[in-house]
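Researcher: Let's do a round of design. I'm pasting the structure tokens now; please hold your answer until I've finished.
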């Protein structure tokens, strides 16, 4: 019996790995920029990598559901509510993975903006190839 692979599966895996990399890099940069205990990871890169993995999983599974449910608020605020949603996803990742600590929703929202900027830059670089 032969198992046939889906021709799109390597692309899905590649995109998730890039998302994981972007989330980890964004968390690390956000922790460096915000500093002062707003986002702490005990100066261990493993915490950032695992935190990025959890955040990438949350963004792939839970975030689309939250966006659909909060579509009226997103439309009413002309998309600015997405900053709050990104912050809530970071707070959820922090709640799931305790070595990654985020002090407040404001810090999480700022980290979400930083991660979004990193995502934009990485996507722009990869699409130019």
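Researcher: That's everything. Go ahead.
Model: Designed sequence:
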């Amino acid at each position: 019996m032969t198992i046939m692979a889906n021709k799109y599966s390597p692309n899905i895996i590649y995109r998730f790995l890039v998302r994981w990399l972007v989330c980890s890099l964004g968390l690390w940069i956000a922790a460096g920029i915000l500093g002062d205990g707003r986002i702490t990871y005990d100066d261990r890169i493993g915490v950032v990598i695992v935190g990025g993995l959890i955040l990438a999983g949350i963004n792939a599974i839970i975030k689309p559901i939250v966006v659909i449910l909060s579509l009226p608020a997103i439309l009413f605020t002309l998309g600015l509510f997405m900053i709050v949603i990104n912050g809530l996803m970071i707070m959820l990742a922090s709640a799931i993975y305790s070595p990654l600590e985020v002090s407040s929703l404001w810090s999480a929202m700022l980290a979400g903006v930083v991660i979004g900027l990193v995502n934009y830059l990485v996507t722009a670089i990869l699409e130019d190839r």
